[in-house]
């Protein structure tokens, strides 16, 4: 089950460098590619607004 970024995202960029498989793309909100996501949760752990959750 991949992670997803909700509209609560403030595009701060904290999550992108944490992704070990480069599945996160910049935008507003940022987007996680579900085909690349390995479900590690590193991005969710650093999100300051809790915009990232499992689908």
Question: Quick summary of this structure?
Answer:
By secondary structure, the protein is mostly beta strands. The chain is built from 1 helix and 4 strands; from the N terminus they run E-E-E-H-E.
Write out key terms for the chains shown.
55 residues, 1 helix, Alpha-Beta Plaits, mainly beta, single chain, two-stranded antiparallel sheet, 4 strands
Task: Summarize the structure in words.
This protein has one helix at 42-46; strands spanning 3-5, 24-25, 31-32, 52-54. The protein is built from 1 helix and 4 strands. The strands form 2 sheets. A two-stranded antiparallel ribbon has the order 1-4. Strands 2-3 form a two-stranded antiparallel sheet. The relative contact order is 0.40. The chain has one domain (1-55): Alpha-Beta Plaits (2-Layer Sandwich). It is mostly beta strands and 55 residues long. A hairpin with a 5-residue loop joins strand 2 (24-25) and strand 3.
């Amino acid at each position: 089950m991949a992670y997803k970024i909700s509209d609560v995202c403030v595009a701060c960029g904290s999550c992108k460098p944490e992704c070990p498989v480069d599945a996160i793309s910049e935008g507003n909100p940022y987007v996680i590619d579900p085909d690349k996501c390995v479900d590690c949760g590193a991005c969710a752990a650093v999100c300051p607004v809790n915009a990232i959750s499992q689908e």
